[in-house]
Amino acid sequence: MSNLDQIIENAKAAQKPPASKRDRNTAAPLPAEAYVPNPEMRQDDLVTAPEFPLHIYPERIKQVITDCERFMSFPADITAAGILAATALAIGRTHRLYYQGEWRETACIYMAIVAPPGSAKSHPLKFALEPIIQINKKAIKDYAKAHAQLAQDVTVSDNLQDKQCLFSDFTIEALTRSIQKNSRGIGVYIDELRAWFQNFNRYNAGSEQEFWLQNWSVISMGITRMSKKVWLEWPSIPVVGTIQPSMLEDIGKGGRAQNGFAERMLFVFPDNVPVIKLRKRMERSDTGAIMLRNYAPVLQTILDMQMAIPGNMDEDAEPHEVILESSADDYITDYLNDLKKRMEEIDNEYLRNVYSKMQTYTLRFCLIVNRLEYACAYQTNREFPPMDDYTVTVEQAYKAAQLTEYFLLHALKANNAINANTPLAKMPRDIVKFYRQLPMGQPFTTREAEDVAVRCNVSRAKLFR
Fold this sequence. Notes:
By secondary structure, the chain is an alpha/beta fold. The chain has helices at 3-14, 59-72, 76-91, 122-152, 172-181, 194-198, 207-216, 249-252, 287-303, 326-344, 349-380, 394-418, 429-437, 446-455, 460-464, and strands at residues 95-99, 103-105, 110-114, 166-167, 187-192, 221-225, 228-232, 239-243, 265-268, 320-324, 391-392. The chain has 15 helices and eleven strands. The strands form three sheets. The chain has a five-stranded parallel β-sheet with strand order 4-5-8-3-9. A hairpin with a 3-residue loop joins β1 (95-99) and β2 (103-105). The radius of gyration is 24 Å and the shape is globular. The relative contact order is 0.15.
């Protein structure tokens, strides 16, 4: 029996009855095959998405997520996904995972949090990124202050330190200049990701899109702009943001549904995202600040990590080398082969590409989980920090596989909207509810349709339209 089979068997043996939302963070993890579409949904309807596997996080992070859900009404799935993205941004280019000799992976991820307008998607993501946002704000202010001083005093050195690490409105040239000055790494955070796609061909048709394809693949590239030529050594710039379900089609436009770009996205597409209700005056407090004090030190530990060999992009700064312990290597190999086997059984080219990209993401999740667990352990043992041997354990590899299974199902759900396979997705909720309650696979009378319309609060006039 392979390590993959053994771990799945252990998970089955430990499996408890379905967990409620309240205790799901303590429930035993489900095996990969437990994540299946809801049998009550039609094949041409949206795929139901699993909840975020909170068990992959250390206890300190799980507590922050549950507290944010309880006291600030932040959906646990979005907060959890935001922390995953924030960890990737914090790691930057400081660490790289080595697998099978030549396979090297960074923490570069492209994440889209999908939820309707007015729901709680932007606030949890901003909370997760807040420590990086504050560092970035200080870097921009310091640079502006130094630039103003330079303009007033010619004796001041013009070697300004630009440490901006987070970008929202930018050009490729700006990113190129910044990553040359900040070899530790930079990231992109855009509240509405649609603006990112729309700007791809703002200046040169196809060139910016090609940049992001190569960036995700961590391919070194040469960039020529006007009279300047720049060589970027494995840029690895993570991207995270939010998008509305009705805008998902934009991801597939401009050839992005055919060139592998859409398949590079990690989608967080919860089935139900509540609208945050405003709290009364007596219920408001500094809850957010308290939650941040519990979370920020963990992310700061990762942000404090520097390159193994300092330097800039031109001087070949080198990252820390993270490896898989022998049992973790065996497990990941078995799991990746399982993904390849499932991919071979699929005819749909888009889905085959999703499975292909998820193999890469599995290794990147190993790196992210490893660094986050070390940072959490460091908080509880500050005087005698835990030994950082840069080694991924089999438990961390298993958690990475569970993250892959989670994002696989969310990618299938997003695929319906990207490729316009689900007309219902664009209809009002009452109409969607009406269609789903009609008898499936059998004739029905007008009277039966009218009865369903009444239960769904659909007027008779709307029914016949």
